[in-house]
TrEMBL record:
Taxonomic source organism: Astyanax mexicanus (Blind cave fish)
Keyword Phosphoprotein (UniProt): no
Needed cofactors: Zn(2+)
Signal peptide from the UniProt entry: 1-25
Keywords, alphabetical: Glycoprotein, Hydrolase, Membrane, Metal-binding, Signal, Transmembrane, Transmembrane helix, Zinc
Protein name per UniProt: Ectonucleotide pyrophosphatase/phosphodiesterase 5
UniProt family annotation: Belongs to the nucleotide pyrophosphatase/phosphodiesterase family.
């Protein structure tokens, strides 16, 4: 009887001891919202007044020089941010690709973005978060409306370039607050990339867009404050790449050196993937190798190791890299852009902004440099999720975080008299917790969620639901959209 009583007492204390720190940690420290403003170069924050970016720096941390991954394009870098892998390892090596194993082509403007095979050489953080029994929500992050390994984010919206930023924010906040509250959110916005391509980063017209982005960040901060989330969640605001100014006097025409009949052109300037026709490799390579001093021509096996851009079948046998500011075209019939990115990831102009704040981050701290692959292990640490193998290093970015409080012993103090019964009770209690509560909690968290109203193309997914692979097919959003607004943006990105 006494043992029984002790056991019950202990069951309760074990329950509290084991679960309370877990729960409070989850609620107070581990929520995370990752925001990307496409093409927001690191130095835009010092170009015009950006009070909201600067508020985040004062309340949190800033990294001045974030080295992103080669090639510095939109899809490769967005996937790097959520996988911690270089492009050669996550497989999304460009915005336009050819996979010789699948014998298929990929364009970010086309319906093949929904073919999960293009994404499944890696597993993004939202999937890993859900496998760990937590929830995620995505407003437009590249790949987040694809069933990667059969899993969609718990909540997401199919890509729709016309959906206003404010609506994306409202959705994320409702997902963070809902009864099935998410732990990890990702938010994507197309600007200032689009304007950067159209007018060039040196144009004064950019100032207006940068100020507008800062106002949008202000809207997000305000909404987080009103909803009581501002001091509870960790907010990271970053981007995929920077932008550099182009010139009509810096155009390289490949037609002048090699016939289009000899090769297939895979990805666009400034890093062009060249697939020579059968038996034409040497001819194409020899024609291009020393043709123009403003481009570098690599055989795949000679691509420098520091690019980490070699070991993937989707990287073409020859790649041509333009020097900064130069544009490679077949001939001058192609449209011209005033700004572009994709160049060498060591160029400062290619680097994105990085600011973050929240309970996990230090305040008023500036770090000189990090690599974008390091963000993944950092986010896993904040979320308390086991990272998958990756190319990042938590140690090299841990100084961004507040020092972890040393865990205090949380077991109840041992009563000094009935030690045998207490020990037995502890043992039985712990066994009960493990044997009963854990499956129970698992059961509860993995139970099929009640259907949420499907407003505005929002789709709610049960956790780890595998049989929803076809769910998106009936949604004609992206395919219809890609004809116009989608393409307008994506084709430049
Ligand atoms: C690759 O696909 C194309 C059609 O898209 C086809 O003509 C060609 O024969 C295929 N090549 C191989 C090696 O299967
Ligand atoms: C995209 O979003 C806009 C703005 O919310 C909406 O009016 C439009 O219907 C959406 N398009 C699709 C295809 O859902
Ligand atoms: C320019 O390139 C396009 C393909 O991009 C080709 O169709 C066209 O014939 C080329 N024009 C000239 C003048 O070679
Ligand atoms: C990046 O990480 C992947 C997965 O662990 C690994 O296979 C690859 O070799 C790593 N790349 C580098 C350059 O270390
Ligand atoms: Zn981009």
């Amino acid at each position: 009887m006494r043992v029984f009583v002790m056991k019950r007492t202990c069951l309760l204390s074990c329950f509290l001891a084991l679960l309370l720190p877990l729960l409070s940690r989850q609620e107070e420290h581990s929520k995370l919202l990752l925001v990307s403003f496409d093409g927001f170069r690191w130095d835009y924050v010092d170009r015009v007044p950006t009070p909201n970016f600067h508020a985040l720096m004062e309340e949190g941390v800033q990294v001045e020089k974030v080295e992103n991954t080669y090639i510095t394009k939109t899809l490769p870098n967005h996937y790097t941010l959520v996988t911690g892998l270089h492009a050669e390892s996550h497989g999304v090596v460009a915005n336009e690709m050819y996979d010789p194993v699948l014998n298929r082509s990929f364009s970010m403007e086309g319906p093949e973005v929904y073919d999960s095979r293009w994404w499944e050489e890696a597993v993004p953080l939202w999937v890993t978060t859900q496998k760990a029994g937590r929830r995620s929500g995505a407003a437009m992050w590249p790949g987040s409306d694809v069933a990667i390994r059969g899993v969609y984010p718990t909540h997401y919206v199919p890509y729709n370039a016309s959906m206003p930023f404010e609506m994306r924010v409202e959705k994320l906040i409702s997902w963070f607050l809902g009864t099935e509250a998410i732990d990890f959110g990702v938010l994507y916005w197309e600007e200032p990339d689009e304007t950067g391509h159209n007018v060039g980063p040196e144009s004064p017209l950019m100032d207006v867009v940068i100020e507008d982005i800062d106002r949008k960040l202000g809207f997000l901060r305000e909404k987080l404050k009103i909803s009581g989330l501002y001091d509870k969640i960790n907010l990271i605001v970053t981007s995929d790449h920077g932008m550099t100014q182009l010139s009509r006097n810096k155009i390289i025409e490949l037609d002048a050196y090699v016939s289009q009949d000899l090769y297939t052109w895979i990805d666009k300037s400034p890093v062009v993937g060249i697939l020579p026709k059968e038996g034409k490799f040497e001819e194409v390579y020899n024609s291009l190798e020393n043709a123009n001093p403003n481009m570098v021509v690599y055989k795949k096996e000679d691509i420098p190791d520091y690019f980490h851009y070699k070991h993937n079948a989707r990287i073409m046998p020859i790649i041509i890299e333009a020097k900064e500011g130069w544009t490679i075209v077949k001939n001058r019939t192609e449209p011209f852009m005033m700004g572009n990115h994709g160049y060498d990831n060591h160029l400062h102009s290619m680097h994105p902004v990085f600011v973050a704040r929240g309970p996990s981050f230090r305040t008023g701290y500036t770090k000189t440099a990090m690599r974008s692959v390091d963000l993944y292990p950092l986010m896993c640490y904040i979320l308390g999720v086991q990272p998958l193998p990756n190319n990042g290093s938590l140690a090299s970015v841990q100084d961004l975080l507040v020092e972890k409080p040393t865990p205090r012993p949380t077991l109840p103090s041992v009563p000094n008299e009935p030690s045998y019964a207490w020990a037995l009770g502890l043992f039985l209690g712990a066994a009960l917790v493990v044997g009963f509560l854990v499956p129970f909690v698992k059961q509860v968290t993995q139970r099929q969620l009640p259907p949420l109203p499907l407003s505005n193309q929002e789709i709610s997914q049960p956790l780890l639901q595998e049989d929803h692979k076809v769910a998106l097919i009936h949604v004609p959003v992206k395919h219809g959209l890609s004809a116009k607004s989608n393409q307008y943006y994506w084709c430049h990105a």
